[in-house]
């Protein structure tokens, strides 16, 4: 069982920055992939960014060049640095972890970008 807790969401104006963090309850050594998804009201959840155990990364086209995902194994965390935020980035952001055959989700953190 893996517990994921997100933090760092909030209200920011367009062009601003936020940094999201997700803390896992077990060592990230056993977690193959960690990532961030987001879901706006009435829309489907979509991949934002992911990072594997070898630190290779994947980004949605809509956030490339603006968002950076990273992981810190010593602190057992994954972070998402979000720069140049746009109103369309507004959503609940969810941390996801893959460990063996299991997928774990956090409770989500709200990000709201005003124009």
Main sheet specs: 7 strands, mixed
- What is the arithmetic mean of pLDDT? 93
Strand content: over 45%
Number of strands: 11
Q: What's the SSE pattern? A: EEEEEEEEEEE
Counting DSSP H or I runs of 4 or more residues, the number of helices is 0
CA-atom Rg in angstroms: 13 Å
Give the helix level as a range of percent.
under 10%
Task: Give the termini distance in whole angstroms.
Answer: 40 Å
* Coarse morphology: globular
* Poorly predicted segments: none
**What structural class should be given to the helix and strand makeup?**
mainly beta
Word description of this protein:
The protein has no helices and eleven strands. The model has no long low-confidence stretch (mean pLDDT 93). 31% of the residues are buried. It is globular. It has 115 residues and is an all-beta fold. The strands form two sheets. Strands 2, 4, 5, 6, 9, 10 and 11 form a seven-stranded mixed β-sheet that branches. Strands 1-3-8-7 form a four-stranded antiparallel β-sheet, with no helix packed on it. The chain starts with a strand and ends with a strand.
Provide the descriptors you would attach to this structure in a database record.
seven-stranded mixed β-sheet; globular; mainly beta; four-stranded antiparallel β-sheet; 115 residues; 0% helix
Blueprint (SSEs and pairs):
Elements: E1 4-7, E2 10-13, E3 18-24, E4 33-39, E5 46-52, E6 57-59, E7 67-72, E8 77-82, E9 91-99, E10 102-105, E11 109-114
């Amino acid at each position: 069982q893996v517990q994921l807790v997100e933090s760092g969401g909030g209200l920011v104006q367009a062009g601003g920055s936020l940094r999201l963090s997700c803390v896992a309850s077990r060592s990230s050594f056993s977690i193959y992939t960690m990532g961030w998804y987001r879901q706006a009201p009435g829309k489907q959840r979509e991949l934002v960014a992911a990072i594997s155990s070898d630190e290779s990364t994947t980004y949605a086209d809509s956030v490339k060049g603006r968002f950076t995902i990273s992981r810190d194994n010593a602190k057992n965390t994954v972070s998402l640095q979000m720069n140049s935020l746009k109103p369309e980035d507004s959503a609940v952001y969810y941390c996801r972890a893959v460990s063996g055959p299991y997928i774990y989700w956090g409770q989500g953190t709200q990000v709201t970008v005003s124009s």
